[in-house]
Amino acid sequence: MRARVSRHVMAMARARIGTHNGTFHCDEVLACSLLRHLPRYKDAAIVRTRDPELLAACDVVVDVGAEYDPSRHRYDHHQRDFSECMNSLWPSKPWKTKLSSAGLIFLHFGEQVLASILEVSPKDLRLPTLYNKMYEGFVQEIDAIDNGISQHDSEPRYIITTHLSARVSRLNTPWNDSHADTKARFEQALRIVGEEFHERLMHYWSVWLPARSLVSQALQERMEVHNSGEIVCLTSGGCPWKEHLFDLEVELGLSTPIKFVLYLDQNGGWRVQCVPILMHSFQNRLSLPEPWRGLRGESLSQITGIPDCIFVHANGFIGGNAKKEGALAMARAALRLELCADNEGNADKQS
Fold it and tell me: What is the pLDDT of residues 7-18, one digit of tens each?
């Protein structure tokens, strides 16, 4: 008898996550998956229903119920007057994509979820950076797709059908299979979404975030590379630097923008790469000199006066030298030529 009572009490005490039944979508699947990373909802039952009484008995409700009330843990976004985004609820965040249930749960519990998965302290100073990256690079896409927000103002040239939301959609019960196990399909969706979130987070944690530390160190040591402060040197080849450089320039309040990045390439030589004016722009803050472009080897060394040159791309955005000193000399020469051109331009104006 006691065993029966204990089991009954445990069942009654088990947390419940409520969401709608019927066709499921990536946003509520991700919302449920994220919640299960919190201690309170680790073993929570997921109640899929539209019955108001059953939903009222749930500890947290996502994507159904026509309520957004964090104080009562109600996180729906379908009500007519809902227009919240990250920026409106958290003004220091820049994103203005309308939130889905996934975004709402991530907004309120994201850092706790990340800390739980990574097994670090909730006060770990790296979490805010990872939080921003996971929203911008993962959750925001799900918010936008669920809310029908297009990536483009005009008709796209092609459609993408392999994204996470599309894969979840295809797991729903087929219209012509009345015997499909809807519960098993929802559990499969939970597993796929959870694994992909975890995989992306671990990539950012182990690959993307360490690169940020290297770029930050390079920026702090830039004056040791060249007194202009416009050249940085990365000690690790292949380090993804562009996004971090743009972010850290703002974060560190650099008044002089970086023009060139030096790094070791996979063949043991050195590259000098121009910093674009924007993250995905093909226009550079300063390109390598036009007379160098498209030249290679000895022809390039002769015109630059710098030994061991390997190449300069025809578009002038990157060049190579066999030695670090040579790559630095190429960057310094490009800065010097820019300064001479500016001085000549000013002299012409004055005359």
Answer: 444 445 789 999
Q: Average pLDDT for residues 310-325, to the nearest whole number?
A: 97
Residue 331 in tokens: 């960057």
CA separation for the pair 311, 289 (Å, rounded): 12
Query: Contact, 318 vs 282, CB < 8 A?
Result: no
Query: How far apart are the C-alpha atoms of 55 and 74, rounded to whole Å?
Result: 10
Query: Of how many residues is the chain composed?
Result: 351
Query: Could you tell me which residues are beta bridge partners of residue 296?
Result: 311
Q: What is the CA radius of gyration of the chain?
A: 27
> Would you list the DSSP string of 295-333?
-BHHHHHHHHT-TTEEEE-TTSSEEEESSHHHHHHHHHH
Dist. CA 190–CA 324, nearest whole Å: 49
pLDDT > 80? residue 345: no
Mean pLDDT of 216-242: 92
Distance of CA 176 to the CA centre of its chain: 38
CA distance linking residue 158 with residue 153, whole number of Å:
14
